[in-house]
């Protein structure tokens, strides 16, 4: 299991190169989150603030929970903070397991919890001004399925 | 006790963290004390349903006790991922 | 959309490098399937047979269905045939969308359909002999959720 | 009509494809004709619930008509992915 919180960019390809390899891994699932421009194309940048003293602990707790609930051979969580321009990678998770169902479910679980339980806050700076991204009810609701 | 503010809570109050001397028994009591300080605190804590709190880096409820807590953090619902 | 059926290996990292990039993509999900050894470690190789005249059409139909059901910016399906040793990659799918739910669901849908509706058959050659892998009821059942 | 066999169906029958002259109206009737040929066909088609059929590269049912079909393929349930 590896959890990284960093300002700099990361390379999902390089991260996946040897991820979860071993005779027991049959399935590897990865998710990469990318800064999406708005429909008007006016997003200049996104600023991600976090709570450093809490972030790593929270991410480890979420990853531990995933490993308790599913049979995983490996888990990777990377989350960035700071200034990101449209098209930049924000974060990724990867899961490795014997069968596909565990890897898929664990990856979705990790994403749902990262969205609403990891101490990150996004601010969008557009041509019109700056706004904190509001939490969405559907993201909170997504936790109920687990 | 260290009190930390993040995102728009930080912006409304105008600082990221401060030392607070308090006898508040619970988070709610601490919020009441802060609200009474100045308008910017009252504005930040106007709607508790829009806020979350962590005690020593663990999410908690507003009625949680503050005994032995060293660090309280207030922030809006998280938007990671 | 890209569908590839091939004997040679592929590089998931290279495939994902520019996959689905564009101002509208916020989520990229990938799945990679790997030849897993059995618990005794006696698997020498896996042989994947397919029905060439049907395979590409079937994979395109499955990918088209995914694009009809979810809002996807891109879909990739790669499936190998021939002789594979333990640890070798068998196949991958990748999906790109605005929001994570579409990418996850479409990737799971693609996997469920590839398992039971794409004309591939796996034979395992172990120290003890050769056996065709039997279709699992749970794989057939998985189709019912879509 | 071209008839194709895959996986253990191919192994039991001993060939991957053959031309078949038939007046069979449906897949089931074709299966009956093949079964009657030789023991290896009877063995391959012993349990239809363990078999799948494709007509001109599209999955079909055993009661599907063969009119205008050029290629019939028999195989066990698929195990891709």
Automatic annotation (TrEMBL), chains A, C:
Pathway: Cofactor biosynthesis; molybdopterin biosynthesis. CDD domains: MoaE. Pfam families: MoaE. GO terms for molecular function: molybdopterin synthase activity. The keyword Membrane does not apply. InterPro entries: MoaE_sf, Mopterin_biosynth_MoaE. Keywords: Molybdenum cofactor biosynthesis. Heterotetramer of 2 MoaD subunits and 2 MoaE subunits. Also stable as homodimer. The enzyme changes between these two forms during catalysis. Converts molybdopterin precursor Z into molybdopterin. This requires the incorporation of two sulfur atoms into precursor Z to generate a dithiolene group. The sulfur is provided by MoaD. This is Molybdopterin synthase catalytic subunit. The lineage of its organism: Bacteria, Pseudomonadati, Pseudomonadota, Alphaproteobacteria, Rhodobacterales.
TrEMBL record, chains B, D:
One of its GO terms (biological process) is Mo-molybdopterin cofactor biosynthetic process. GO terms for cellular component: molybdopterin adenylyltransferase complex. It comes from the Bacteria. The keyword Mitochondrion does not apply. Keywords: Nucleotide-binding. It holds the Pfam family ThiS. The keyword Nucleus does not apply. GO terms for molecular function: nucleotide binding. Belongs to the MoaD family. This is Molybdopterin synthase sulfur carrier subunit.
